[in-house]
Predict the structure.
Amino acid sequence: MMRTPSIRSQDDPLSIAIRPPASESDVDRQSRLQQEAEARRISEQIDEELRVEREKLRKSRSDVKLLLLGQAESGKSTLQKQFQLMYSPASLEGERMSWRTVVYYNAVCSIKKILATLEAWDDIDDGSDSQSTIERQELNQDDFPLAPASLLGSHIGVAISPSSPLDPPSPSAPSPTKSGVSDLRRRLVSLVNIEPQLADRLSGGVSVSGSGKGEVYVRTGWQARTIQKGHKLIGRRSKRGEAESSELTTERPGTALSTLDSDSLVEDVATMLYQSREDIKSLWEHPVVRALISKRKLKLDEWSEFFLNDIARIAARDYVPSTVDDILHARIQTMGVAEHIFDVDIHGKIVAWHLFDVGGARGQRHSWVPYFDDANAIIFVSPISAFDQYLEEDPRTNRIDDSLQLFTQICSNQLLKKVHLVLFLNKTDILRKKLEQGLRVSKYILSYGDRPNEYDSVVQYFRVHFLQVHRRNNENRRVLYTHLTNVTDTKATQSIIGNVRDSIFRGYLQSAALV
Ligand SMILES: Nc1nc2c(ncn2[C@@H]2O[C@H](COP(=O)(O)OP(=O)(O)OP(=O)(O)O)[C@@H](O)[C@H]2O)c(=O)[nH]1
Ligand SMILES: [Mg+2]
Protein backbone atom coordinates (compact mmCIF):
# COMPACT_ATOMS: atom_id res chain seq x y z
CA MET A 1 0.00 0.00 0.00
CA MET A 2 1.20 3.49 -0.79
CA ARG A 3 2.09 5.74 2.10
CA THR A 4 0.82 9.33 2.05
CA PRO A 5 3.64 11.57 3.29
CA SER A 6 2.91 13.96 6.14
CA ILE A 7 2.98 17.60 5.12
CA ARG A 8 5.49 18.15 7.88
CA SER A 9 7.70 15.46 6.49
CA GLN A 10 11.18 16.64 5.69
CA ASP A 11 10.78 14.67 2.48
CA ASP A 12 7.73 16.69 1.48
CA PRO A 13 8.52 18.03 -1.99
CA LEU A 14 6.74 21.36 -1.23
CA SER A 15 8.79 21.94 1.95
CA ILE A 16 11.91 21.08 0.04
CA ALA A 17 10.96 23.44 -2.78
CA ILE A 18 10.30 26.47 -0.55
CA ARG A 19 13.09 25.85 1.95
CA PRO A 20 15.74 28.60 1.60
CA PRO A 21 19.03 27.32 0.22
CA ALA A 22 21.69 26.61 2.84
CA SER A 23 24.00 29.07 1.05
CA GLU A 24 21.49 31.99 1.24
CA SER A 25 23.31 35.32 1.68
CA ASP A 26 22.09 38.12 4.00
CA VAL A 27 20.97 40.19 0.99
CA ASP A 28 19.06 37.25 -0.52
CA ARG A 29 17.46 36.53 2.83
CA GLN A 30 16.38 40.16 3.19
CA SER A 31 14.86 40.11 -0.28
CA ARG A 32 13.09 36.79 0.36
CA LEU A 33 11.58 38.04 3.62
CA GLN A 34 10.36 41.18 1.84
CA GLN A 35 8.71 39.07 -0.87
CA GLU A 36 7.07 36.86 1.75
CA ALA A 37 5.76 39.92 3.62
CA GLU A 38 4.33 41.32 0.36
CA ALA A 39 2.65 37.98 -0.42
CA ARG A 40 1.13 37.96 3.08
CA ARG A 41 -0.12 41.51 2.61
CA ILE A 42 -1.81 40.62 -0.69
CA SER A 43 -3.34 37.51 0.81
CA GLU A 44 -4.74 39.51 3.73
CA GLN A 45 -6.07 42.12 1.35
CA ILE A 46 -7.91 39.42 -0.62
CA ASP A 47 -9.31 38.01 2.65
CA GLU A 48 -10.54 41.48 3.59
CA GLU A 49 -12.16 42.02 0.18
CA LEU A 50 -13.91 38.66 0.49
CA ARG A 51 -15.11 39.61 3.96
CA VAL A 52 -16.49 42.94 2.68
CA GLU A 53 -18.21 41.15 -0.24
CA ARG A 54 -19.75 38.60 2.15
CA GLU A 55 -20.94 41.42 4.37
CA LYS A 56 -22.45 43.23 1.36
CA LEU A 57 -24.19 40.03 0.31
CA ARG A 58 -25.51 39.51 3.85
CA LYS A 59 -26.80 43.08 3.94
CA SER A 60 -28.26 42.88 0.45
CA ARG A 61 -30.39 39.97 1.62
CA SER A 62 -32.21 42.48 3.78
CA ASP A 63 -32.67 44.91 0.87
CA VAL A 64 -36.02 45.13 -0.90
CA LYS A 65 -36.00 43.92 -4.51
CA LEU A 66 -38.81 45.25 -6.66
CA LEU A 67 -39.36 44.24 -10.29
CA LEU A 68 -41.20 46.49 -12.75
CA LEU A 69 -42.75 44.16 -15.31
CA GLY A 70 -45.06 44.63 -18.29
CA GLN A 71 -45.06 44.83 -22.08
CA ALA A 72 -43.07 47.41 -24.07
CA GLU A 73 -44.35 50.99 -23.79
CA SER A 74 -46.46 50.16 -20.76
CA GLY A 75 -44.75 52.84 -18.64
CA LYS A 76 -42.18 50.91 -16.54
CA SER A 77 -39.26 53.27 -17.13
CA THR A 78 -41.53 56.26 -16.61
CA LEU A 79 -42.53 54.79 -13.25
CA GLN A 80 -38.85 54.20 -12.46
CA LYS A 81 -38.21 57.90 -13.19
CA GLN A 82 -40.95 58.76 -10.68
CA PHE A 83 -39.17 56.66 -8.05
CA GLN A 84 -35.94 58.45 -8.94
CA LEU A 85 -37.65 61.82 -8.69
CA MET A 86 -39.03 60.88 -5.29
CA TYR A 87 -35.98 59.26 -3.72
CA SER A 88 -33.04 60.74 -5.61
CA PRO A 89 -34.14 63.94 -7.36
CA ALA A 90 -30.61 65.30 -7.67
CA SER A 91 -29.57 62.39 -9.87
CA LEU A 92 -32.43 63.01 -12.31
CA GLU A 93 -31.50 66.66 -12.36
CA GLY A 94 -27.94 65.66 -13.19
CA GLU A 95 -29.15 63.63 -16.18
CA ARG A 96 -31.08 66.47 -17.81
CA MET A 97 -28.58 67.16 -20.57
CA SER A 98 -28.39 63.51 -21.61
CA TRP A 99 -32.18 63.43 -22.04
CA ARG A 100 -31.84 66.19 -24.64
CA THR A 101 -30.51 63.61 -27.10
CA VAL A 102 -33.57 61.41 -26.46
CA VAL A 103 -35.99 64.32 -26.87
CA TYR A 104 -34.30 65.27 -30.17
CA TYR A 105 -34.44 61.64 -31.24
CA ASN A 106 -38.16 61.41 -30.39
CA ALA A 107 -38.87 64.64 -32.30
CA VAL A 108 -36.85 63.59 -35.37
CA CYS A 109 -38.51 60.13 -35.45
CA SER A 110 -41.95 61.73 -35.24
CA ILE A 111 -41.17 64.06 -38.15
CA LYS A 112 -39.78 61.10 -40.09
CA LYS A 113 -42.99 59.16 -39.56
CA ILE A 114 -45.14 62.09 -40.72
CA LEU A 115 -43.02 62.47 -43.85
CA ALA A 116 -43.09 58.74 -44.57
CA THR A 117 -46.88 58.69 -44.29
CA LEU A 118 -47.19 61.69 -46.58
CA GLU A 119 -44.86 59.99 -49.03
CA ALA A 120 -46.96 56.85 -48.99
CA TRP A 121 -49.95 58.96 -49.97
CA ASP A 122 -47.93 60.94 -52.47
CA ASP A 123 -46.83 57.82 -54.38
CA ILE A 124 -50.36 57.39 -55.63
CA ASP A 125 -51.29 61.05 -55.64
CA ASP A 126 -53.81 61.97 -58.26
CA GLY A 127 -54.06 65.60 -57.11
CA SER A 128 -57.58 65.44 -55.69
CA ASP A 129 -58.83 67.45 -52.73
CA SER A 130 -57.24 66.52 -49.42
CA GLN A 131 -60.00 66.81 -46.86
CA SER A 132 -62.69 65.11 -48.86
CA THR A 133 -60.33 62.38 -50.04
CA ILE A 134 -59.32 61.48 -46.54
CA GLU A 135 -62.90 61.53 -45.43
CA ARG A 136 -63.76 59.09 -48.20
CA GLN A 137 -60.95 56.92 -46.90
CA GLU A 138 -62.70 56.01 -43.61
CA LEU A 139 -61.35 52.69 -42.51
CA ASN A 140 -64.12 50.22 -41.99
CA GLN A 141 -62.76 48.72 -38.80
CA ASP A 142 -65.97 46.82 -38.10
CA ASP A 143 -64.90 44.50 -40.90
CA PHE A 144 -61.89 43.15 -39.02
CA PRO A 145 -62.12 39.42 -38.64
CA LEU A 146 -61.61 37.77 -35.28
CA ALA A 147 -58.06 37.11 -34.27
CA PRO A 148 -56.79 33.55 -34.41
CA ALA A 149 -57.16 31.76 -31.08
CA SER A 150 -55.57 33.87 -28.37
CA LEU A 151 -54.29 32.30 -25.17
CA LEU A 152 -57.04 34.09 -23.36
CA GLY A 153 -59.69 33.44 -25.93
CA SER A 154 -62.13 32.55 -23.23
CA HIS A 155 -61.54 35.88 -21.49
CA ILE A 156 -61.41 38.41 -24.20
CA GLY A 157 -62.28 38.48 -27.89
CA VAL A 158 -60.09 40.77 -29.94
CA ALA A 159 -60.05 41.95 -33.51
CA ILE A 160 -56.89 41.49 -35.54
CA SER A 161 -54.71 44.43 -36.39
CA PRO A 162 -55.77 46.91 -39.02
CA SER A 163 -53.10 47.84 -41.55
CA SER A 164 -50.16 49.73 -40.21
CA PRO A 165 -50.46 53.50 -40.37
CA LEU A 166 -47.47 53.41 -42.67
CA ASP A 167 -49.12 51.09 -45.15
CA PRO A 168 -50.00 53.11 -48.23
CA PRO A 169 -53.66 53.31 -49.09
CA SER A 170 -54.91 51.01 -51.78
CA PRO A 171 -54.05 52.20 -55.33
CA SER A 172 -57.70 52.75 -56.10
CA ALA A 173 -57.96 55.34 -53.34
CA PRO A 174 -57.29 58.92 -54.31
CA SER A 175 -54.83 60.78 -52.08
CA PRO A 176 -54.79 64.26 -50.64
CA THR A 177 -53.28 67.23 -52.35
CA LYS A 178 -50.27 68.42 -50.42
CA SER A 179 -49.93 72.02 -51.33
CA GLY A 180 -46.84 73.23 -49.52
CA VAL A 181 -46.16 69.80 -48.09
CA SER A 182 -43.67 68.77 -50.77
CA ASP A 183 -41.59 71.87 -50.07
CA LEU A 184 -41.63 71.11 -46.35
CA ARG A 185 -40.65 67.52 -47.04
CA ARG A 186 -37.74 68.58 -49.22
CA ARG A 187 -36.49 71.04 -46.62
CA LEU A 188 -36.80 68.58 -43.71
CA VAL A 189 -35.16 65.63 -45.41
CA SER A 190 -31.65 66.31 -44.11
CA LEU A 191 -33.00 66.54 -40.55
CA VAL A 192 -34.71 63.14 -40.72
CA ASN A 193 -31.70 61.60 -42.46
CA ILE A 194 -29.69 62.13 -39.30
CA GLU A 195 -31.98 59.79 -37.32
CA PRO A 196 -29.80 56.64 -37.69
CA GLN A 197 -26.77 58.50 -36.33
CA LEU A 198 -28.73 59.74 -33.34
CA ALA A 199 -29.98 56.20 -32.74
CA ASP A 200 -26.42 54.96 -32.88
CA ARG A 201 -25.28 57.58 -30.41
CA LEU A 202 -27.94 56.54 -27.90
CA SER A 203 -27.53 52.80 -28.25
CA GLY A 204 -23.74 52.99 -28.31
CA GLY A 205 -23.77 51.07 -31.59
CA VAL A 206 -25.69 48.12 -30.13
CA SER A 207 -28.43 46.85 -32.39
CA VAL A 208 -31.00 44.47 -31.02
CA SER A 209 -33.19 41.94 -32.69
CA GLY A 210 -36.52 40.87 -31.27
CA SER A 211 -38.03 44.27 -30.62
CA GLY A 212 -40.00 44.31 -33.84
CA LYS A 213 -39.79 48.07 -33.68
CA GLY A 214 -37.08 49.88 -35.56
CA GLU A 215 -36.49 51.86 -32.39
CA VAL A 216 -33.30 52.39 -30.49
CA TYR A 217 -32.63 50.41 -27.35
CA VAL A 218 -30.53 51.57 -24.47
CA ARG A 219 -28.78 49.67 -21.75
CA THR A 220 -28.59 50.98 -18.25
CA GLY A 221 -25.91 53.64 -17.89
CA TRP A 222 -26.54 55.18 -21.31
CA GLN A 223 -26.85 58.60 -19.71
CA ALA A 224 -23.20 58.49 -18.76
CA ARG A 225 -22.24 57.62 -22.33
CA THR A 226 -24.07 60.59 -23.77
CA ILE A 227 -22.52 62.89 -21.20
CA GLN A 228 -18.90 63.49 -22.12
CA LYS A 229 -16.22 61.73 -20.12
CA GLY A 230 -14.65 63.66 -17.30
CA HIS A 231 -17.87 65.14 -15.97
CA LYS A 232 -18.99 62.82 -13.30
CA LEU A 233 -22.49 64.00 -12.59
CA ILE A 234 -24.10 61.00 -11.04
CA GLY A 235 -22.90 58.83 -8.18
CA ARG A 236 -23.29 55.18 -9.06
CA ARG A 237 -23.36 51.87 -7.29
CA SER A 238 -23.53 48.70 -9.22
CA LYS A 239 -24.53 45.12 -8.71
CA ARG A 240 -25.18 42.99 -11.79
CA GLY A 241 -22.91 43.98 -14.64
CA GLU A 242 -23.06 47.65 -15.46
CA ALA A 243 -26.14 48.18 -13.34
CA GLU A 244 -26.86 51.71 -12.37
CA SER A 245 -27.81 53.46 -9.22
CA SER A 246 -29.11 56.86 -8.72
CA GLU A 247 -27.50 58.80 -5.95
CA LEU A 248 -26.07 62.15 -5.21
CA THR A 249 -24.80 64.55 -7.80
CA THR A 250 -21.26 65.62 -7.15
CA GLU A 251 -21.78 69.13 -8.41
CA ARG A 252 -24.59 71.57 -8.07
CA PRO A 253 -26.83 70.83 -11.07
CA GLY A 254 -26.60 74.31 -12.57
CA THR A 255 -22.83 74.12 -12.59
CA ALA A 256 -22.83 70.61 -13.93
CA LEU A 257 -24.99 71.47 -16.91
CA SER A 258 -22.87 74.41 -17.91
CA THR A 259 -19.64 72.44 -17.78
CA LEU A 260 -20.73 69.70 -20.16
CA ASP A 261 -18.58 69.15 -23.19
CA SER A 262 -20.57 69.44 -26.35
CA ASP A 263 -21.29 66.46 -28.57
CA SER A 264 -20.90 67.66 -32.15
CA LEU A 265 -23.60 65.36 -33.55
CA VAL A 266 -26.14 66.46 -30.96
CA GLU A 267 -25.14 70.08 -31.50
CA ASP A 268 -25.64 69.62 -35.26
CA VAL A 269 -29.12 68.24 -34.64
CA ALA A 270 -29.84 71.13 -32.28
CA THR A 271 -28.82 73.61 -34.99
CA MET A 272 -30.89 71.82 -37.64
CA LEU A 273 -33.93 71.77 -35.37
CA TYR A 274 -33.47 75.44 -34.64
CA GLN A 275 -33.17 76.29 -38.34
CA SER A 276 -36.15 74.08 -39.23
CA ARG A 277 -38.41 75.10 -36.36
CA GLU A 278 -40.83 77.06 -38.53
CA ASP A 279 -41.01 74.25 -41.11
CA ILE A 280 -41.66 71.65 -38.40
CA LYS A 281 -44.41 73.82 -36.93
CA SER A 282 -45.96 74.31 -40.39
CA LEU A 283 -45.81 70.59 -41.08
CA TRP A 284 -47.34 69.72 -37.70
CA GLU A 285 -50.15 72.25 -38.19
CA HIS A 286 -50.69 71.52 -41.88
CA PRO A 287 -54.34 70.66 -42.69
CA VAL A 288 -53.30 67.49 -44.51
CA VAL A 289 -51.38 66.22 -41.49
CA ARG A 290 -54.22 67.23 -39.17
CA ALA A 291 -56.70 65.39 -41.39
CA LEU A 292 -54.53 62.27 -41.57
CA ILE A 293 -54.30 62.25 -37.78
CA SER A 294 -57.96 62.86 -37.14
CA LYS A 295 -58.93 60.13 -39.62
CA ARG A 296 -56.37 57.82 -37.99
CA LYS A 297 -54.40 57.32 -41.20
CA LEU A 298 -51.41 58.71 -39.35
CA LYS A 299 -50.97 57.17 -35.90
CA LEU A 300 -48.17 58.83 -34.06
CA ASP A 301 -46.70 57.63 -30.81
CA GLU A 302 -48.09 59.24 -27.67
CA TRP A 303 -44.94 61.20 -26.96
CA SER A 304 -44.80 62.69 -30.50
CA GLU A 305 -47.67 65.00 -29.76
CA PHE A 306 -46.10 66.14 -26.51
CA PHE A 307 -42.85 67.19 -28.19
CA LEU A 308 -44.23 68.47 -31.53
CA ASN A 309 -46.79 70.66 -29.77
CA ASP A 310 -43.88 72.28 -27.99
CA ILE A 311 -41.41 72.38 -30.87
CA ALA A 312 -40.61 76.09 -30.47
CA ARG A 313 -39.32 75.43 -26.95
CA ILE A 314 -37.53 72.20 -27.84
CA ALA A 315 -35.83 73.65 -30.91
CA ALA A 316 -34.66 76.75 -29.03
CA ARG A 317 -30.89 77.24 -29.03
CA ASP A 318 -30.53 76.98 -25.25
CA TYR A 319 -32.94 74.06 -24.78
CA VAL A 320 -32.42 71.92 -21.68
CA PRO A 321 -35.10 69.27 -20.96
CA SER A 322 -37.30 70.05 -18.00
CA THR A 323 -36.65 67.68 -15.13
CA VAL A 324 -40.19 66.53 -14.80
CA ASP A 325 -42.32 66.77 -17.93
CA ASP A 326 -39.74 66.40 -20.70
CA ILE A 327 -37.85 63.57 -19.03
CA LEU A 328 -41.08 61.75 -18.11
CA HIS A 329 -42.33 61.94 -21.70
CA ALA A 330 -39.04 61.13 -23.41
CA ARG A 331 -39.24 57.63 -24.83
CA ILE A 332 -36.42 55.17 -25.18
CA GLN A 333 -36.74 51.39 -25.04
CA THR A 334 -35.05 49.55 -22.20
CA MET A 335 -32.71 46.74 -23.11
CA GLY A 336 -32.27 43.84 -20.70
CA VAL A 337 -32.66 44.70 -17.04
CA ALA A 338 -31.63 48.02 -15.48
CA GLU A 339 -31.07 48.12 -11.74
CA HIS A 340 -31.62 51.31 -9.79
CA ILE A 341 -30.85 51.51 -6.08
CA PHE A 342 -32.58 53.94 -3.75
CA ASP A 343 -32.22 54.44 -0.03
CA VAL A 344 -35.81 54.54 1.15
CA ASP A 345 -36.71 55.97 4.52
CA ILE A 346 -39.60 53.98 5.91
CA HIS A 347 -40.76 55.42 9.20
CA GLY A 348 -37.22 56.25 10.26
CA LYS A 349 -35.64 53.03 8.97
CA ILE A 350 -33.41 53.34 5.89
CA VAL A 351 -33.71 50.35 3.58
CA ALA A 352 -32.00 49.97 0.21
CA TRP A 353 -34.51 49.31 -2.55
CA HIS A 354 -33.34 47.71 -5.74
CA LEU A 355 -35.65 48.57 -8.59
CA PHE A 356 -35.30 46.37 -11.65
CA ASP A 357 -36.68 48.05 -14.77
CA VAL A 358 -36.92 45.51 -17.60
CA GLY A 359 -37.23 45.71 -21.36
CA GLY A 360 -40.83 44.67 -22.11
CA ALA A 361 -40.70 43.68 -25.80
CA ARG A 362 -41.13 39.95 -26.44
CA GLY A 363 -37.49 39.52 -27.44
CA GLN A 364 -36.43 40.94 -24.07
CA ARG A 365 -38.57 38.91 -21.71
CA HIS A 366 -36.16 35.98 -21.31
CA SER A 367 -33.81 38.29 -19.41
CA TRP A 368 -36.33 38.74 -16.57
CA VAL A 369 -36.16 35.23 -15.19
CA PRO A 370 -32.80 35.41 -13.32
CA TYR A 371 -34.33 38.18 -11.21
CA PHE A 372 -37.36 36.15 -10.12
CA ASP A 373 -35.85 34.01 -7.39
CA ASP A 374 -34.97 36.77 -4.92
CA ALA A 375 -37.66 39.34 -5.79
CA ASN A 376 -39.80 40.64 -2.92
CA ALA A 377 -42.36 42.50 -4.99
CA ILE A 378 -43.59 43.12 -8.52
CA ILE A 379 -45.36 46.10 -10.00
CA PHE A 380 -47.02 44.83 -13.16
CA VAL A 381 -47.77 47.74 -15.49
CA SER A 382 -50.52 47.35 -18.07
CA PRO A 383 -51.47 50.17 -20.45
CA ILE A 384 -55.26 49.94 -20.59
CA SER A 385 -55.38 52.70 -23.20
CA ALA A 386 -53.88 50.25 -25.70
CA PHE A 387 -57.14 48.49 -26.61
CA ASP A 388 -56.80 49.76 -30.22
CA GLN A 389 -53.08 48.97 -30.52
CA TYR A 390 -51.12 45.92 -31.61
CA LEU A 391 -47.68 44.70 -30.65
CA GLU A 392 -44.88 46.16 -32.73
CA GLU A 393 -43.10 42.81 -32.50
CA ASP A 394 -46.25 40.89 -33.49
CA PRO A 395 -48.75 43.12 -35.30
CA ARG A 396 -51.53 40.50 -35.06
CA THR A 397 -51.59 40.58 -31.27
CA ASN A 398 -53.77 43.12 -29.53
CA ARG A 399 -51.81 44.81 -26.77
CA ILE A 400 -54.43 44.30 -24.05
CA ASP A 401 -54.55 40.61 -24.95
CA ASP A 402 -50.74 40.39 -24.74
CA SER A 403 -50.79 42.13 -21.39
CA LEU A 404 -53.33 39.65 -20.01
CA GLN A 405 -51.28 36.73 -21.32
CA LEU A 406 -48.17 38.14 -19.71
CA PHE A 407 -49.98 38.74 -16.43
CA THR A 408 -51.17 35.13 -16.50
CA GLN A 409 -47.57 33.97 -16.85
CA ILE A 410 -46.45 36.17 -13.97
CA CYS A 411 -49.32 35.11 -11.67
CA SER A 412 -48.75 31.42 -12.37
CA ASN A 413 -44.95 31.43 -12.17
CA GLN A 414 -43.84 29.16 -9.32
CA LEU A 415 -40.78 31.29 -8.51
CA LEU A 416 -43.03 34.27 -7.94
CA LYS A 417 -45.82 32.70 -5.98
CA LYS A 418 -44.86 34.39 -2.69
CA VAL A 419 -44.01 37.74 -4.20
CA HIS A 420 -46.06 40.80 -3.25
CA LEU A 421 -48.06 41.70 -6.35
CA VAL A 422 -49.17 45.17 -7.41
CA LEU A 423 -51.04 45.94 -10.64
CA PHE A 424 -50.93 49.36 -12.30
CA LEU A 425 -53.68 49.81 -14.87
CA ASN A 426 -51.82 52.63 -16.55
CA LYS A 427 -52.29 55.35 -19.16
CA THR A 428 -55.76 56.14 -17.86
CA ASP A 429 -55.37 59.70 -19.21
CA ILE A 430 -54.86 58.38 -22.75
CA LEU A 431 -57.78 55.98 -22.34
CA ARG A 432 -59.99 58.89 -21.34
CA LYS A 433 -58.84 60.94 -24.34
CA LYS A 434 -59.43 58.09 -26.81
CA LEU A 435 -62.95 57.52 -25.51
CA GLU A 436 -63.68 61.25 -25.68
CA GLN A 437 -62.50 61.22 -29.29
CA GLY A 438 -65.12 58.57 -29.97
CA LEU A 439 -62.93 55.49 -30.36
CA ARG A 440 -65.12 52.47 -29.73
CA VAL A 441 -63.65 49.71 -27.57
CA SER A 442 -65.91 47.05 -29.08
CA LYS A 443 -64.31 47.58 -32.50
CA TYR A 444 -61.10 46.11 -31.14
CA ILE A 445 -62.23 44.07 -28.14
CA LEU A 446 -65.17 42.20 -29.61
CA SER A 447 -66.16 40.69 -26.27
CA TYR A 448 -66.81 44.20 -24.95
CA GLY A 449 -70.09 43.97 -26.84
CA ASP A 450 -72.61 46.75 -26.35
CA ARG A 451 -71.44 47.90 -22.94
CA PRO A 452 -71.30 51.71 -22.61
CA ASN A 453 -68.28 53.22 -24.32
CA GLU A 454 -67.48 55.18 -21.18
CA TYR A 455 -64.41 55.46 -19.02
CA ASP A 456 -65.80 53.83 -15.84
CA SER A 457 -67.33 50.94 -17.71
CA VAL A 458 -64.19 50.28 -19.78
CA VAL A 459 -61.90 50.46 -16.76
CA GLN A 460 -64.16 48.13 -14.83
CA TYR A 461 -64.23 45.65 -17.74
CA PHE A 462 -60.42 45.48 -17.96
CA ARG A 463 -59.99 45.40 -14.20
CA VAL A 464 -62.33 42.42 -13.91
CA HIS A 465 -60.30 40.52 -16.52
CA PHE A 466 -57.05 41.11 -14.68
CA LEU A 467 -58.61 40.15 -11.35
CA GLN A 468 -59.97 36.99 -12.95
CA VAL A 469 -56.52 36.02 -14.20
CA HIS A 470 -55.16 36.59 -10.73
CA ARG A 471 -57.93 34.61 -9.03
CA ARG A 472 -57.46 31.63 -11.34
CA ASN A 473 -53.74 31.53 -10.61
CA ASN A 474 -53.69 32.21 -6.90
CA GLU A 475 -53.05 29.00 -5.02
CA ASN A 476 -51.25 30.98 -2.28
CA ARG A 477 -54.19 33.30 -1.69
CA ARG A 478 -52.07 36.37 -2.04
CA VAL A 479 -53.63 39.82 -2.22
CA LEU A 480 -53.52 41.77 -5.49
CA TYR A 481 -53.19 45.51 -5.00
CA THR A 482 -54.61 47.40 -7.99
CA HIS A 483 -54.16 51.06 -8.89
CA LEU A 484 -55.49 53.16 -11.76
CA THR A 485 -52.56 55.27 -12.87
CA ASN A 486 -51.20 57.90 -15.18
CA VAL A 487 -47.52 57.66 -14.34
CA THR A 488 -46.72 60.94 -16.09
CA ASP A 489 -48.79 62.67 -13.40
CA THR A 490 -46.16 63.24 -10.74
CA LYS A 491 -48.36 64.25 -7.79
CA ALA A 492 -50.78 61.33 -8.17
CA THR A 493 -48.03 58.79 -8.90
CA GLN A 494 -45.91 59.79 -5.94
CA SER A 495 -48.86 59.37 -3.64
CA ILE A 496 -49.45 55.89 -5.07
CA ILE A 497 -45.74 55.06 -4.74
CA GLY A 498 -46.03 55.98 -1.05
CA ASN A 499 -48.92 53.52 -0.60
CA VAL A 500 -47.19 50.81 -2.58
CA ARG A 501 -43.97 51.31 -0.61
CA ASP A 502 -45.81 50.89 2.70
CA SER A 503 -47.72 47.80 1.57
CA ILE A 504 -44.62 46.18 0.10
CA PHE A 505 -42.65 46.92 3.22
CA ARG A 506 -45.32 45.48 5.51
CA GLY A 507 -45.32 42.26 3.49
CA TYR A 508 -41.55 42.27 3.42
CA LEU A 509 -41.27 42.58 7.20
CA GLN A 510 -43.78 39.77 7.70
CA SER A 511 -42.02 37.44 5.30
CA ALA A 512 -38.65 38.26 6.87
CA ALA A 513 -40.26 37.44 10.24
CA LEU A 514 -39.00 40.71 11.64
CA VAL A 515 -42.30 41.63 13.24
N1 LIG B 1 -49.79 60.05 -21.23
C1 LIG B 1 -49.15 59.05 -20.64
N2 LIG B 1 -47.99 58.62 -21.16
C2 LIG B 1 -47.37 57.59 -20.53
C3 LIG B 1 -47.88 56.97 -19.38
N3 LIG B 1 -47.03 55.99 -19.00
C4 LIG B 1 -46.02 56.03 -19.88
N4 LIG B 1 -46.22 56.98 -20.81
C5 LIG B 1 -45.37 57.30 -21.97
O1 LIG B 1 -45.26 56.13 -22.74
C6 LIG B 1 -43.96 56.03 -23.30
C7 LIG B 1 -43.39 54.67 -23.00
O2 LIG B 1 -43.13 54.56 -21.63
P1 LIG B 1 -41.87 53.77 -21.04
O3 LIG B 1 -41.88 54.02 -19.57
O4 LIG B 1 -40.64 54.11 -21.79
O5 LIG B 1 -42.29 52.28 -21.38
P2 LIG B 1 -41.56 50.93 -20.90
O6 LIG B 1 -42.60 50.08 -20.25
O7 LIG B 1 -40.37 51.26 -20.07
O8 LIG B 1 -41.14 50.31 -22.30
P3 LIG B 1 -39.90 49.28 -22.61
O9 LIG B 1 -38.67 49.87 -22.02
O10 LIG B 1 -39.84 49.21 -24.09
O11 LIG B 1 -40.29 47.98 -22.01
C8 LIG B 1 -43.16 57.21 -22.74
O12 LIG B 1 -43.10 58.23 -23.72
C9 LIG B 1 -43.96 57.67 -21.55
O13 LIG B 1 -43.86 59.06 -21.33
C10 LIG B 1 -49.14 57.43 -18.86
O14 LIG B 1 -49.68 56.93 -17.87
N5 LIG B 1 -49.73 58.47 -19.55
MG1 LIG C 1 -38.37 50.95 -20.37
Summary: The mean pLDDT is 80. The radius of gyration is 29 Å.
